[in-house]
Design a protein that fits this description.
alpha+beta, Alpha-Beta Plaits, 4-stranded antiparallel beta sheet, 2 helices
Length: 66
């Protein structure tokens, strides 16, 4: 399970975009997005670096969160 902080996530459209792009990587991925805290919790077999790269390509810089 990964936790990411996505500081530039500002609206519901961003949330939907993040969910959609991650589900394209792994249709079985479990994604929980909390807009208020700007946290994305991901349960997937996809490598964390790949997830961060795909989010960056969509304009969402993500940092690992403890």
């Amino acid at each position: 399970m990964y936790k990411l902080k996505v500081e530039n996530m500002k609206c519901k459209s961003c949330v939907l975009n993040i969910e959609d792009v991650l589900k394209e990587l792994d249709p079985n991925m479990k994604v929980t997005v909390d807009l208020a805290s700007k946290l994305v919790v991901i349960d997937s077999v996809v490598d964390l670096d790949k997830i961060i790269q795909v989010l960056a390509e969509e304009g969402h810089s993500a940092l690992t969160f403890p």
